[in-house]
Amino acid sequence: MTDPKERLTDSSCPPNKEILEAWLGDKPYQLWKTLSELIDKNYPGVFVPEWLFGGKKHGWSLRYKKSKSFCTFVPERGRFILVIVFGKSEREAFERMRTTVTPQTQEIYDNATTYHDGKWMALTLKNKRSLQDAPVLLGIKRKPSPATQ
Fold this sequence. Notes:
This protein has 149 residues and is α+β, with helices and mostly antiparallel strands. 40% of the residues lie in helices and 25% in strands.
């Protein structure tokens, strides 16, 4: 269980750029920006990110959603977590391409809990190496725009 002191839990104050940068720290904030920009580039005009407050236990998260959930960024002190929920067909797609992601990401996927709505994968992003698999995983959820490939 995550310590609430590690999450942004002030319900009266949705995170802005300054709060996020101070909370995450420089390197994780740069990874946050890089992944946000990658989503904007690969899925132009598809998503309008939305801040959600999950209560004192879970704090703030940034959700990318169109008709169904795409992914969620969860800021924690000094890092952030990319949460992706894979449905049945997406789990099958992951299995077909699992060797294209790092062994660490394969292990995180294998250990993720499967609920009635899918397999909830939480990938902690704290350095460039941990970021490299994110576009592959997001591509399973939704193919990038043909103009970006």
